[in-house]
Each structure stands twice: as C-alpha cells, then as structure tokens.
Amino acid sequence: MASMAKPGHVGGEAEKTAVIPLRGNEAVAYAAKLARVQVVAAYPITPQTIIVEKIDELISKGEMDAEMIYVESEHSALSAAYGAAIGGVRAFTATSSHGLAYMYEVLWWTAASRMPLVMALVTRAIGPPWNIHVEHADLMSTRDTGWLIAMAENNQEALDLTLLMFRITEDPRVYLPGIVGLDGFILSHTVEPVEVPSQELVDELLPARRQPYVIEPGKPIAMGNIMPDEIFEQHRMDMHVSQRASIEAIREAGKAYLELTGRDYTSLVECYKCSDADYLVVGVGSWMGDAKIAADMLREKNVKTGVLRLRWIRPFPWDELRKAAEGASVVVVMDRSISFGHAGPLYLEVASSLTQDIPVVGVVAGVGGVDISYEDIARITKHAIKTVEDTGTKRIPVLWYHKGSFYPMPPGPLRQREPPITANPLL
Amino acid sequence: MTAVNIKALPRKKYVMPGNAACPGCPETMGFRYLGMALGDKAVTVIPAGCSSVIQGLWPRQGWGLPVLNIVFAAGAAAASGLSRALKRRGIEAQVVVWAGDGGTADIGLQALSGAAERGENIIYICVDNEAYMNTGIQRSGLTPHGAWTTTTHSGNPGRKKPLPQIIAAHKVPYVATASIGYPWDFIAKLRKAAAIKGFKYIHLHAPCPVGWRFDPSLTHKIAQLAVETGAWILYEYENGRLKLNPPSNRLLDPRKRKPLEEYLKLQGRFRNLQPKDLEILQAEVNENWAEIEAILKAQEKH
Question: In this complex, do A220 and B65 lie within 8 Å of one another by their Cβ atoms?
C-alpha cells in the first residue's frame, strides 16, 4: 500500500481540493456524497460498516442530501438500491464477504437490467471458520455477473474510482452497474491522506444521471418479463459488447478526471517499471503497493522486476496486459483467493489472455488475511523464476505460499510434498 | 368504507387480451381490479410467481401498468427503493407490490417485515392462491391443512400462516383481507390504502382452478364460498383497530355461516380429506373467529 497523495501537495488546482486524513471506508462515503447519491441502502457487515455509518452521519448533519434505507439484509440492500436506481436516482450500496454472497442473485438481476448503480465491496474472506480479514474470494465471485469491477490500491483510489464509476456506469455505451473493491482493514480501516475534490469539481466530472429507462407512473413498460431464448441470448451478447465498450468510457472518464485533478486514471492498469522488466508481477489491490517495493528490492540485485497492477478486472485489460508482458521472460500472477481444484482466478484470467508464449506462474498467498510483506513478495518472485528455470515448465497454476514455504498444488507433476497438516494442540 | 360506484370506474383496461393466464385465473381478475382502483398512478413490483408469467412473452405485455419484475425474495425491498426514488423526484405515484403467497409468506417474508417496520410508503398485495402454482402446485406456508399439492400427496400436515395478523402486529397503518369474490370490497380497500401514507398490506384470497382442482368457471363462486363458510374472513385493521367487513361482519354467529364442506367439496385438492383433517380445518376456522371476536370485544372496552 503506497498512497498517491501526500499532504501539502495537491495535483489539480489547490483551492479545489482538500487533503484530509481518511480511512478507506470514509473515502468511499465522501465519494458517494460528492456524487450526489440520493438513495443509499446498505446492511452493516465488518469491515464495510464505517461506510454505512459515515454516510448516515453525513446525512444526519445535513452535509449529504440523501435517504438511507435501513434494510434488514444485504439481499434487500441491493434490491432497494436497484429499485431506487430504476426509479431514476443515483443509488449506492456497500458490502463485504457473506453480505455479497447473500445478495448474489440481485447482482445478476441488476446487471442484466442494464441499470447503472455503484457498490463498494470491502474485500473479506468468506467463512467458515469466521474470518473478517482480507481475501479476494468475494470480489472474484462477481466476475461473471456483468458488473464492471475496479479494485483500489489505496484510499485515494477508493475515492477516485467510486466517483469515476458513477460516470462510467451511467455512460450510454456502458449502462451496467459497477463494483469498487477495496481491501478489508488494510484500506477500509487505515488512515491515509486523501485529496478530496470539491463539489464543483465533481459536478464537472459527473453529468446529470443518465439511464436506459425509468419505471414511473403513466408509462406502462415492463422490466424483466420473459423473452424468447434467442432474444435473451442477444441481450447477453449485448452486455458483453458493452463491457468491451466500457474500456473507451473508462479511458475518457480518466482523461476528464486527469484534467480536473491531475490524477491519472486513463489506463485500466498501473504499470510500475514494467517497460524494461524481465519479470512481471501481476495482481490487484493493496498488496501491489508492497509488490512495487519488492520490485525495487529485486532490481537492486539485478533481478529486473516490474509490477502490473490491474486497476480493472471487468472489463479485463487484455491489451495492457499483452503490452506489459512484451519482453518479459516470466509472469508471476498473485492471487489472494483460490478456485478450489483448479487455480487462482486471476492466474486463469491472465494465462488465458496472454498471446506471448512465456511462462506464467500462479502464486496463491495471503488467503484469510495472512499478512504478506514486500519481503514475501520478493521471495515469491525469486522462487517463481527459479521454478521455471529449474523445470522449464510454461504453466504453473498454483504455488501456494504459506508461512514462508511453497506448496506446489495438483494438478501436474510438480507435486513435491504434502501441505502441512497442523496438529490440533488440544488433542 | 366509501361505496364503489360501478359507473364511475375507469373503462381503461389494465389486463390485456392474449395474456398467458390459465382459464379462470384469479390473478387477472385481481389485477383488473387493481387497475380500476388505482389507475395510472400505480407502479407495480412483481416478484417471481404466476404474475411474472401471465405478462406473456416479450415484446408483448399483458399487464397495463408499469411493471418491475424482480427476484423472488425482493418484492418489498425493490418497492422500497422505487418508492423513495419517485418521492425524491417529486413524482406522485403509488408503488404496489403484487406478490404471490410464496413470495410473501415464505421467501419474501423477511423483506416484507423490514419494509413494514420501516414504514415504507407502498401497498403490498399478497395474491394468495395457497401454493406455489407457478412451479406446479407445491405447498407453501399459506397452504391450508389437509390440502393435496404435488409436494403433499397425503395432505398438507401444516397450518396456514396467519399472515395478515403477522403484518398487523408490525403496527402498520393499514392491513386488510380481501377476496376475488368481492371486487367492490377489494377496490374500496385499495383506494383507502392509497389515501394512507405509510405501509399498507392487503391479503387477497385467490382460488386457483388449476391448483385447487376445480372448474375454471367457479373461481368467483369458490372465493365467495370461502367467505360465506367463514374459512376466509374479510376484515381490516385501520391504525391497529380491527373491523369486520361485509359479508363477514354478519358471520360472527357460527350458525349464519355455511357448512365448511360446501367450500371444500368443490375442490379436488380436498378430495381425500380424512374426517380428522376436516375436524382440524373446522377447529382452525372456529379459532380464527374466536380470535377476531376476542379482539373486537377488547376494543369495545377501550
């Protein structure tokens, strides 16, 4: 995690921005306020709670002109936010982990309704056993739903991406909802200096809400009644096309934001020293800040490493990925979750997107909130390179990094030893 | 309650010909009354159920009101959001949830309770055909005791949930029961509900020819028999105060009710009803009336 903003330095016009120390969740809440969200429906779940609390506080103090719907579950949270969006106002919700799992069917319903709506997802492991710490299993489970998915590296990005997401989802070329992910506790509960743009500036970024249709009295239209299967399939094809079209919308919104704030979101990825890199570390979220430090450490030892951080997971940044991989001899993909029986989800996405015939190593680490430092990432990178060099293998789906050791997981001939089975000290 | 003048009802059709309903469907009857009562101010939210299908195949649409179709459990929640949005936009509207008994009493009960507790400004209508008819007549929490369904081949062992009472216990401003057999009563209740701010609940008894196994020409008659035998009671809670509505208000005396068998014998779902099941059903009816009587007596004292 490395913050983009430094106190005392402001990117755009100084008078139009304030640098405030904010937790990631508060940064998201301020973004919802600045986006002039009118209806918020959310249900508390650790580590998302501060978002809901902060928004309610802003509304109570009269700083935010919105209604909060105090729903009884996440299923209702997204359903109510969706109902509000379809009624013609900007709506917002936020959740984590089990909350996301509980609202899962509504994710599909919202996306296929083509209804712009923004949700913050504070990433967290899914139980059992109960675990409130960071993991990307929840975020990754949303990939097939049709939502746009962005992932913040730091609190500044959590705010900026939330604002940008409103503009992008309401772009007529897109008309899909969007998730902004931020890592539980690492960002959600950690204070960083954040440049908060003024209302005037955000109003310039965000035009009045646009949406494909509105349900209101006097217009007897229906959303969601049965279609012939061929039309249904066309509709799904159209969602896919819109995901692709959103790339242009993202770049344009990024350009507008760059002009307004001086912060650059024109690319779907962040490339850190990857132009001349022999080894490329690919990943999403806050630990990519540590990966950058690891790359610097490795470069000091002449291991020319770069970091490709995917800021967007949907749409998937194929072009940026292929470009960044040019000249690299090993790509290391870091996953903070696993698709049991196969590999890390991000590994699967990266390995299937590269056109170059270069080795791709998938490393699963930090599952369930296990702390991963930049030293770990440097060790992981070196180990992945060595494994490729020693074995000559092109595709290594899972090297599970656990407590300083590497566990090659099936399938494949790489299995060297069993993962540890910790004895129960009580037995 | 203000009487409904048949001549003053809108001529506009809110249920289109060519819709996909079965012959004798109570839901098309009910939706027609809904349109007549509320007119173009109404916006409907329809969770999964028969009414999702009756609309017909896109691009046709059998319901003449705006429809937001929504997942099974989300009727009350989606309506909450929609109602808030329209209010914020300054649009005069009556958001109505049109849900079946499964979407209301079972999978949708949590969202319904939440919306009632929050006092959302919506009308929630439970169109109660007493089983999951859309998926092929499986039992629901509102299936009566002893009834055959495709998941209760030897008769439903449970007892119908007292849903209107459950909602009334939320202390919402308006709760009413209604019946397809008494359109004027239903229309008047809808209009009364529309004039009240806050959460309103109307439980519409809707006999289903396919699921209950009776001739499609008998929907209206069976609905009336349910009321005349006392199996279904027409009443309303206005600000927590209970009142019986005609003709149920004349049936407090059990001697004035028709025998329960008259209602049951026309329905194939009760064909194999055992004498002990009939006793249980009769005891339920007596108990429901005793409860009503007790509440009315308690109200007299206050």
Answer: yes
Q: Please tell me if residue A220 touches chain B, with a CB cutoff of 8 Å.
A: yes
Q: Could you tell me how far CA A345 lies from the centroid of its own chain?
A: 13
Q: What is the number of CB-based contacts under 8 A between chain A and chain B?
A: 168
Whether residue A11 has pLDDT greater than 60 = no
- Indicate whether A283 and A203 sit together in one domain: no
Average pLDDT estimate for A33-54 = 98
Taking only the tens place, the pLDDT of each residue in A123-150 is 999 999 999 999 999 999 999 999 999 9
Q: Which residues lie below 8 Å from residue A346, measured CB to CB, with a gap of 6+?
A: A136, A140, A282, A283, A284, A310, A313, A333, A334, A335, A362
Domain span at residue B15 reads 8-301
Q: Which three-class secondary structure string do you get for A335-376?
A: ECCCCCCCCCHHHHHHHHHCCCCCCEEEEECCHHHCCCCHHH
Q: How confident is the model at residue A3 (pLDDT cuts 50, 70, 90)?
A: very low
- Looking at the structure, tell me whether residues A178 and A325 fall in a common domain: no
| CATH code of the domain in which B250 resides | 3.40.50.970
Confirm whether B267 is domain-assigned: yes
Which residue from A minimizes the CA distance to B110? A72
Residue A224 touches partner B, C-beta closer than 8 Å: yes
Across the interface, do A225 and B94 touch by the CB < 8 Å criterion?
A: no
Predicted pLDDT of residue B10: 86
Average pLDDT over residues B233-251: 97
Question: Do A246 and A282 fall into the same domain?
Answer: no
Q: Does A355 touch chain B (CB under 8 A)?
A: no
Confirm whether B3 is domain-assigned.
no
Contact A83 B40 (CB under 8 A): no
Residue A9 lies in a domain: no
- Assess A423–B contact: CB distance below 8 Å, yes or no: no
**Nearest Cβ partner for B74 among A75, A215, A227:** A75
Look up the domain containing A402 and give its range: 269-408
Beta bridge partners, A406, equal A401
Q: Of the candidates A84, A217, A228, which has its C-beta nearest B81's C-beta?
A: A84
For residue A66, the chain B residue with the least C-alpha distance is: B88
pLDDT tens by residue, A81-139: 999 999 999 999 999 999 999 999 999 999 999 999 999 999 999 999 999 999 999 99
Question: For residue B225, what are the contacts with CB-CB under 8 A and spacing of at least 6?
Answer: B181, B231, B258, B262, B263, B266
Last residue of a domain, one of A233, A261, A289: A261
A81 in contact with B, Cβ within 8 Å:
yes
